[in-house]
User: What shape does this take?
Amino acid sequence: MVKAAGTDHPLLVNCIVPLHMQGPLTYRWPFDTTLPERGTRLLLPLGHRRIVGICWGPAREFLDESRLKDVLKVMEEQPLIPGGLLNFIEWAASYYYYPLGPALSEALPAGFLSATRKATEQATDRGIGPGRSRFDVKAWSHGTVRKLTAEQENVLSEIAKAVTAGVFSPYLLFGITGSGKTEVYMRAVEHCLASGRNALVLVPEISMTGQIAGWFAGRFAQGLSLLHSGLTREQRRDQWWKIRSGESRIVVGARSAIFAPLQNIGLVIIDEEHDPSYKQADKFKYNARDLAVMRGRMEGATVVLGSGTPSVTSYFNALSGKYCLLEMKERAGDARLPSVEIVDRRVRSRKKRRDVKKDAGRSGARSDETPWLSSRLRHAISSTLEAGHQVLLFLNRRGFATYVFCQECGHVFKCRSCDVVLAWHRGNKALLRNVDTEKFKGPGVLCCHYCGQLYPALPACDKCSGQAVRASGFGTEKVANDFLQEFPGTTVARIDRDTVGHRKKMERILHSFRKGEIDCLIGTQMITKGHDFPNLALVGVIAPDMGLNVPEYCAAERTFQLMAQVAGRAGRSAVKGRVIIQTYMPDHYAMECATAHDYRRFYEIEIAKREALGYPPFSRLVNVRLSAAKKAAAEEAALKLADVAEKAAGNRKDIIILGPVQSPLARISSRYRYQLMIKGAMKPVRRLCSEIDRRVGSLVPSNVRVEIDVDPLNFM
Ligand code: ADP
Ligand code: ZN
Assistant: This one.
């Protein structure tokens, strides 16, 4: 047995294990060899089971070695995880206050680290080598290598210079929708490969299936790996090894591709950098956009954040010199920006009220009215279809009706496990597939959009047994339904989480829309980004107001971006584009600036508000969220942590502790939720969070879950 240097003690090794605990576990090293390198996987005993952890190096403290267990086996000769990636994940875990073991386990393909018996057996028996299942992305033919526009030339030469210099340089590429950013990305990647280094390209989750991946596949047949949520486990593992071995030199992928084992990175591109899907919503709540900048720094790479509607924070960073700003202000080719019109829905409500009065007595006079369709949009759709062009309708809410209530007793149908009203999905095939037809006889189902629980759509009230149950509000399903009635003989497709369960289906729909086989595409935010439809002439934004009426500091930013992005789908070829936004808040600056295609003005109004209220980028936010099955337990723990925070903050002026309060969604999946928001300058906020993180273990009982969300985007 090897002894620890200069002592008579056996060598002890620290191991990172995929369990929620702080710090490594220490084991005895029973072999005659020296310790393997950091990053090598080890088979370890834990209680009565065996787990797979990672060698982190010799233990410095001498514990009572007789109580320690022996490492069972070294899983591979070479360290699995390259050193650079290991340091990067370690940094990310500490920045987001997430334990290192689970962070590593989530950053690696499933089964590489394991804490359960089954997973460990699989990892040890079958190994984690390259899978046999390869997969190919359909090359979205983009054979024509066009002459670059002057703006593209300028931007590209800047980026190329930085790539050649080979030192960390962050850029914000503000190029309006349709300005041809993808072409710039591809040329920059070509340049990076030619200079002998590798490239990492991140795209938002949804458009992964869209054209960017297809264009890259068309241009770079060799050495390209695509990573997204549509891959099977086996395919993911296979891609991982292709990258690890150096066979793949370009990685295009969604959020989690930020942890790809790519080495010698010269260029990191984040397309649509403003997109909130870069932020992981649960468990390891990292933001891949922010991490990309850090990975680029660690690798000495050029980082390009690209967007037609940059996040307020990134634009602020560009104006303040933290990033270098590159701009493309014109659309490429023949394309022109679409005209954007606002339909003021308030007029309609006043008129309607008058009409309703007039019509009183004449029963059913307006019963055939389609609530989401203004007459301007109706006419625009008709003339667009007559001209042989296509329509896209955007509504960020799925389902048929938003809520269901009893007209006799006023009872609103709610989820039993969540404090949330149920939406009615009338004929949804994807949802209905999970339904037990014996139990669910009614038309469609009621669905909780938070926990996914389904309930029968009863004809009667479950409280008073009244028979006058009514559904109210509309979602994409109703819009699609009404569209066919309003415009008979047309073809409609819907893209939302109900209809596109998997990548292939979505790809098929987008493909036939692109080819002109569908007249109207209706969808949620899934359709807003990254797609290019040459024959699309009209975009209707149906009810953007609901995005403004949420208690989140970035609500206006998010709504502006969605509108600008969805509007950006129109007029991307020689076909002239028209966008109609229906709103009850026509004077809101997000609406006005989206209409005028005026990002700069939006930014100036928004940044002034942020400064006045001390929101990011003028401060850091951290949301400490607690949840428990018992309300009192969650509340008590929240008060304790708030106390820790207050004491740690002392009477500092540069830090604000908000709460603890019940979360706006007070109960989800049978757990009561509380939150504590910390706001202030970077350093004191981090000091305070470290203190909370350190004290959680001793102060909070294990039946209360505590999650620290750094730079949160979700406040519900
Ligand atoms: P963005 O990502 O900036 O919104 P895209 O990269 O999707 O824009 O490009 C928009 C359209 O412009 C695409 O149809 C693309 O083929 C076309 N395009 C790009 N570069 C050029 C160019 N230099 N000349 C003509 N058309 C171009
Ligand atoms: Zn629920």
Summary: Residues 359-368 have pLDDT under 50 and may be disordered. The pocket of adenosine-5'-diphosphate (ligand 1) is lined by residues 146-149, 152, 175, 177-183, 308, 332-333, 532, 572 (CB under 6 Å). The chain has five domains: 12-126, 150-328, 339-398+475-612, 401-473, 620-710.
